[in-house]
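Re: the request from the purification team.
They wanted to know what the chain is likely to look like in 3D before they choose a buffer screen. I agreed to run a prediction and write the result into the notebook, where they can find it.
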Amino acid sequence: MRRDDFLSAPGPANAATSTELLVGAEAFWERARADISQARRRVLVQAMTCEGDAAGEALADALLASRAEQRALLVDAYSLHVTNDTLLPYLPWRPAALRAEAQATRRLFGRLVGGGVPVTVTNPVGGNPLHFPLRNHKKLIVADDAAYLGGINFSDHNFAWHDAMVRIADSAVADFLAGTFAADSAGVPRCAAGRFDTLDVVALDGESNEAALGPVMELLAGARRSVEMIGAYPTLPFTGALTDAAANGAAVTIYTPEANNKPLLRDFLFAEAARCGRLKLALLPAMTHAKAAIVDGETVLFGSVNFNLASWRSNGDLLAISRDPALVAAFERELFAPARAGARLAPADEVPASRRAKARALLELGDAALARLSFKGMRRAVDWA
């Protein structure tokens, strides 16, 4: 598939299709909780992180109160090994509050199962640390014929970050995403693409991502006028496509947080800006976990994909591509215009050359390591009992 193939052949459309961009966890959760409470057929929730704090408990309460015939939570094993961005929170030398929250996460899963809501854990590490980088990174809610895609996990620290979700009201889209949810729950994730009127949705399985994302790379690299991307974690190979677009004359800007929870990735973006002088790096004053791009002012990309090497190599993810003028305008108005107003352009030499070189070297080593990892022999899902 080439870049021009995106959205060139519309698929099944629902006359009632609508999209709604929800910026911020409060706006997202108010809308999603209402859909969950009204659903009668299905409520399916998938996240990389669901923790035993106020955000996680609110989700559990909504699932347990739901009168939908089918209710389920799909959460990645990441939640069992990372709490509040801290690896292995259950170790005895971790702060007591952190260990208590890790225990609360396990109790939350037990409360759901006890209340008739099955919980499935994707990509269990199973005692093999080499399995830890192989994550299911999807964020998804399907409530009857409404679906939500974006970057928000169910934890207090994720709820505190700037982020966004898109509500899509379309039975065909909801059915497609419910199918990806079922495959992940069964431990047989698959790469799949659905075409729905003005929207394409790509589901990534972590094994076939490169082939599935090839057209996305062509779309970015082939920009004629502009690319604007917002995200905390863009890296190679996507930044290579952006520098190609910039070298060909497109105006390319990456909006990324100055207070990044992974500062190495911010330093890598400075290295990319130094390598391609036409690529502009704009620093946001607060942490953003949103992931989106607008190409040539007419195509918007959004979902859980971080546009980084993990997205390319190993993550299960969801990405949507749309040329719906109303949705593009919503992203322009509610996400990118505030980013432009609040960010400051940063010269590449703001970060010392030694740090830029270190970041690039470590990212290239990480990419080589991920390329050698395999899901072979790994259980992809287990039920929480």
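For the purification team: The chain is about 40% helix and 25% strand.
Please add any questions underneath this entry.
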